[in-house]
Amino acid sequence: MIFKLKPAQEKYLQLLLIIITYIMIILRFLLNEKGRVSPDSIRYMRQSEIFPVIDNTTAPLGYPLAIKFFTFFELDHFWSSKLIGILAFTIILIFAYRKKFFFKELMIISSLFSFVSIFSYTMSEEMILPFVVVYFYIGRQIINQKYTLAKGTFYLSLCLIAMINIRYSALFFCGGNIVFGLMNFRKNYWKSFVLSGVIGIIFYGIYKFTFIDYFNEKYIDTFLEIGLKPTSQLLLELFQGMATTFNPFIHIADPNGGIINYGIYGMGVLTILVMIFLFIKIRLSDTERFIITSSLACIALSYFVQYVYSVNAIDYRLMAPFSIGIWMVFFRKLFNVFGAFTYTIGFISLLIGFAFTWLSKGNYLENRKAITAFLTQENLMHSKLKFFVKDQEDNDGQTAELISTVNPNIYLTFKAADTLKNNVLTRYKVEKKINIKKNKYQ
To answer: How crowded is residue 112: how many other Cβ atoms within 10 Å of its Cβ?
Structure first.
């Protein structure tokens, strides 16, 4: 039985969900010992700080330049990145509401703890999500013949190019476009999808040879490598990545293993099975088929690229641009079956997310104050810094990440001999002078 609310009641419920989501996005990085940043975040903020100098071509310029833009409004690079996350969430809601395009669904998706974590993270996934929603909207307009062939191809190509300038993996959407177009070659809109996909690929090719190769001649040699991981490992990582990506409540498994992971993976697998059932049981519209086809093609390409390209293991963050479309269709089907009761998923996810955030809380503002005092005392506030870590997985790097939120012009070094130099920081050198509040669960 479909649970219905009066229009006024549903609006109040939606407003409450949105307000709590905003609060959770802010709490997610304030109640974190380093403000929700990572080694990749260091590169983004440093690129923004030193631009127009280019020292990083492993990621496009879109996100660093967006951070740079907001620094002109008296924000530093860290707070600029957080503003981008909040604006991304806001733009998605405003666009979906004004265009009457999956508004209720996107509202709930944004309240899922995994997406709250994305919007609070200093990573480019937060910035690309509004463009992904616009991409799906343009696809719907093309399918419904609201655009001519030329207009539809132009808008879709422009959106794909914008996404590629934020994340290289947006190239997979070009592949998804071509797949969907070829699957519907008997319909009059197929050419717009194929042509825009080809244009996006051509743009990336030009970008690669004119920008990436100019600043990094060894890009291919560094990142293109056959047989990085065996298929058995990749399939296991795919299962774990999908099971956490599509878990509506908990998106990170316990790295130490244990029985709790059975529940986390189990919930994700159950959600995927329910998705498959509903997508088969309730007929998909052409727009929904486009969203699902494009998203699945991107996920498949994300898996196969690992055979030849060095990337992180599949997880909720990398999959966010590709999973959001599947969530959109899934929640639309849930609304068809359960009505307003579907909103409870968002509230439960926020509640669990708050509990997780509180139990594992650090104190970013306190740590930021301590790091600022340290850098000021050492006359390093505006200096180029080096920080030693054993490898990218070394927990000592978390201190470097925290420093980057105050002085983003910091580079990691993996040479132990560098620790003898006075201008190279280590976790010991920093923490013997200041106290950093740690996450007691890490």
So the answer is: 27
Choose among 47, 74, 139: nearest CA to 101. Answer: 139
Query: Cα angle at 238 between 56 and 299, to 5 degrees?
Result: 65
SS3 308: coil
- Please report how the helices 286-304 and 171-183 are oriented relative to each other, as an axis angle in degrees rounded to 10: 130
Q: Does the pLDDT at position 302 exceed 70?
A: yes
pLDDT greater than 80 at residue 424: yes
For the stretch 375-391, pLDDT in tens is 998 888 888 889 988 87
Q: What is the dihedral of CA 401, 405, 407, 411, to 10 degrees?
A: 30
Q: What is the mean pLDDT of the chain?
A: 91
Helix axes 77-99, 62-71, angle to 10 degrees: 110
| 251 and 330 assigned to the same domain | yes
Establish if 131 belongs to a structural domain. yes
pLDDT at position 226 is 58
**Pairing of β 385-388 and β 424-425:** parallel
Domain's final residue, options 326, 359, 392: 359
Structural domain contains residue 70:
no
The rounded distance, in Å, linking the Cα atoms of 25 and 73 is 21
pLDDT per position as a tens digit, 390-419: 876 666 778 899 999 999 999 988 888 888
Average pLDDT over residues 279-295: 96
Over range 44-48, report the average pLDDT: 93
pTM beyond 0.85: the answer is yes
Q: Both 99 and 175 in a single domain?
A: yes
Strand (E) or helix (H) holding 266: helix 260-281
Assess if residue 69 is contained within a domain: no
368 plus 402 within the same structural domain: yes
For the chain, give the longest Cα–Cα distance.
70
Those residues whose C-beta lies under 8 Å from the C-beta of residue 137, and which sit 6 or more positions away, are 95, 99, 101
Q: Decide: helix, strand or coil at residue 124.
A: coil
| Residue 437 domain-assigned (yes or no) | no
